Automatic annotation (TrEMBL):
UniProt topology in membrane: Multi-pass membrane protein
Subcellular localization(s) per the UniProt record: Cell membrane
GO biological process, one term: transmembrane transport
Coiled-coil intervals, chain numbering: none
UniProt-listed CDD domains: TM_PBP2
Main localization, broad class: membrane
GO cellular component, one term: plasma membrane
Protein name per the record: Inner membrane ABC transporter permease protein YdcV
Length: 274
């Protein structure tokens, strides 16, 4: 192998700087969260301990951390389920052109370019004018769907664009009904993509701030609670919270990836046994 060109080292240095810029703040917060009981919000650290992690599980005077976490978790699961179901239905519907399909497609994509705070304001005003409760499970849920559904639909459009209809034709030739074809042929084939859409839906909802700001009502989700803590918390407990939520996010990603790998292994095992 010959000597590497100079451009290789330049690109390696740029990539290293990018990784440091991307993960440096997270690593810094994780380190500061292990400060001793007398620790502050900056370096140098004053000892090391798990004091601030224990403090998270005690009665907090700074806010409803675990209530906010529970609301974000429930909201994320609600958004995930609806995003998966509607994305699959939309992907199936858009396989054939219909009247107004182009306008409907661009209308859905427009939600991605509208400033999130304006969406939050509009949804909040709409619910208020209609006499409906402005609540994280109603207006907050609707506002977040305007963010997650376009991503889910775009993924499903790409998946069904490459989907071979010969599989469905073979199932129908064997006497399968339309529902049986979808359940036993289409869904198993696109299952890895469904996991990706579910992961997108949950993670985008779990850390969404702007579209929830004016639609959550009087009960904060976790991003809103963390933002509120930045104005009145002067101890590393906020760093401990950030570390735990980061670990939780990576755990969720690991669960979804593990599910995708398990399904892929199961499919290969079935194919090898035939």
């Amino acid at each position: 192998m010959g000597p590497r060109p100079r451009s290789f080292y330049v690109l390696a240095a740029v990539f290293t700087l990018f990784v440091v810029f991307l993960y440096g703040p997270t690593v810094t917060i994780a380190i500061l969260s292990f400060q001793g009981p007398q620790g502050g919000l900056t370096f140098p650290m004053r000892g090391t301990s798990l004091h601030w992690f224990r403090d998270l599980f005690e009665q907090q005077a700074v806010g409803d951390i675990w209530g906010a976490f529970r609301r974000s978790l429930i909201l994320g699961l609600m958004v995930m389920i609806v995003t998966v179901v509607v994305s699959v239905m939309g992907g199936l519907a858009f396989r054939k052109r219909f009247h107004g399909s182009g306008a409907l497609f661009y209308l859905m994509i427009a939600a991605l370019v509208i400033p999130s705070i304006l969406v939050s304001l509009g949804v909040g005003l709409l619910f208020g004018r209609a006499g409906l409760p402005v609540h994280w499970a109603t207006s907050g849920f609707g506002a977040q769907l305007t963010w997650t559904l376009p991503f889910g639909l775009l993924i499903m459009f790409a998946v069904f664009n490459r989907f071979d209809p010969a599989f469905e034709e073979a199932a129908r030739d064997l006497g399968a009904s339309p529902w049986q074809t979808v359940r036993h042929v289409v869904l198993p084939i696109i299952a890895p993509s469904l996991i990706g859409v579910a992961l997108f839906g949950f993670t985008l909802s779990y850390d969404e701030f702007a579209r929830t700001l004016l639609t959550a009502g009087s009960y904060n989700t976790l991003p809103l609670e963390v933002y509120g803590m930045t104005t009145n918390v002067t101890s590393p407990v906020i760093f401990a919270l950030g570390t735990l939520t980061t670990v939780f996010s990576f755990a969720v990603i690991g669960v979804f990836l593990g599910g995708a790998l398990a399904m892929d292994r199961r499919r290969k095992t079935r194919a090898g046994g035939r």
